[in-house]
Amino acid sequence: STCPAASAQMTAAGAVSPLEIARAVESLYRDRLKPYGRILRKRIAEHASLFGTQEPSDIGVRELRGVCEMCPWLSVQDAEGADWTALLVGQPQNFVDVYSPEDVYPQQLWTEAGRYFETLVGDDMVLPGGRYMCAQVLARRNLGFLVGYSLGQIAHIVQLAISQKKLLGYSSGTVVPYAHSQSMMKDKHAECQRPCPGVVRGKATVASWDTMREHLQELMKTAGAD
Prior knowledge:
The protein has helices at residues 4-13, 18-30, 37-50, 61-69, 107-119, 131-140, 151-163, 182-193, 195-225, and strands at residues 74-78, 84-88, 168-171, 174-177. The chain is mostly helical and 226 residues long. The strands form 2 sheets. A two-stranded antiparallel sheet has the order 1-2. A hairpin with a 2-residue loop joins strand 3 (168-171) and strand 4 (174-177). The longest helix has 31 residues, at 195-225.
């Protein structure tokens, strides 16, 4: 279906058409990515570049929402924070929850992913900081352990690799193998700051008490001798 009001507004703004919005939303459904406003805008820009149309740099997420709300085949709903979603009316939703802590992937995937990330060097090991764009880069590399997974699933794998598996971490706003990340440095620093000095202090405390006990025994002997 077309939405003339939206089409007129977008044309006046020199931005995207309802057809481009529909194409972007449908592609996110295929990727099993919930079409949040910020992701929808990115996908529209990607399609603009891919299909040679003008990139909609002059429309913000808020303006995009207004246009989506005029489209009868879209249901615009508020989401967490200040974000929103544009859902296809009457279409089943099979999105991946990229924030879910549940690991539903085989151990073999994590084993192969770990080996792969450990071998990365130079520019190859520097990935975009966002899960969405990081997943896109990994998907384009045609990695064997990611074959058959949707972009939404790959984004979830990236999330788990960072938050649980310690295969990836952050460094200056980018995602890198964990061994090269500031995350690893912070974890090691935290380990040293908490357990290590504690152990040292503990040993020092035991040594001090032993020394004190020896001195007390000497004093008691001396006192007894007097």
